């Protein structure tokens, strides 16, 4: 009898032990099965929700800037953030003041679009000291901890200059439209000077350019004056424009003057630019560019990496693509359709991480 009682007691202890082990295993098994990316995304979602982002722009002009801002806002909103745009209308003192205002208003992150080190360094250093991450685009900034994005400016210039040289047979009179004081322009000028040094049969007969609130219109007026100065066929073979606003103005002046023998080669791309290039009666025949929406998207991704505490490179170069009329269909398309005809356009994966893609999921539902 005693041994029976002992056996029953042992059996109860054994059953109880198995039940406890089974209960304890459930949460442990769940923990082991959780994906690291899911855990990282869940943590990021909590820490990165509702971030306020300031976009500090030197100048907001034309469709390129509009599409760039659209890319910034689109990516930020997918990640749960909100963007406020501060534009300086080309005034560097105002841009510096806008940067100070963003810092004082305690924005969570700051994006810089163009500007100079002289105008921005002090403010950027102040932001870094206050642990506000900064990502700059096309600005000559070298502050430790700040990531700077740039388009492949020299490559873009080389692509369009090489196409121009091929089209004009390596000789002729050209007009350069360019302006100093912008980091991307300075890089494009390096490629231009190298091209001119190598191509002695290409002569620069005129050069001008200024950034204003009416750049395309002002460029058109200046180009009209140059056409009157060089009225004969052959006086001007081609125009090289270092900015799409310059290309638009020059192309309109040439088209209205009926000087169809003069072709325009530009840099940058927007929906408006693409429409002009597709128009067979328009002098603008080719451009090199990075999708402006992609620029904005990539810039925001690196900002969120910094907000997450990740290390980011000091410099990031965005790869440009070359777009010419002969690549495009006869029917009008937009830049969102350009990837169907031009390899490498749009949908850049630069700056993406697995946890960032996971973080986007709630916004997509």
From TrEMBL:
Record domain Periplasmic binding protein: where: 53-310
Cited InterPro entries: Bact_Solute-Bind_Prot2, Peripla_BP_I, SBP_2_dom
Signal sequence region: 1-21
Keyword Nucleotidyltransferase: no
UniProt lineage: Bacteria, Bacillati, Bacillota, Bacilli, Bacillales
Protein's cellular compartments: Cell envelope
Main location group: other
Pfam families the record matches: Peripla_BP_4 (PF13407)
Gene assigned in the entry: rbsB_2
Keywords assigned: Signal
Entry similarity comment: Belongs to the bacterial solute-binding protein 2 family.
Protein name, per record: D-ribose-binding periplasmic protein
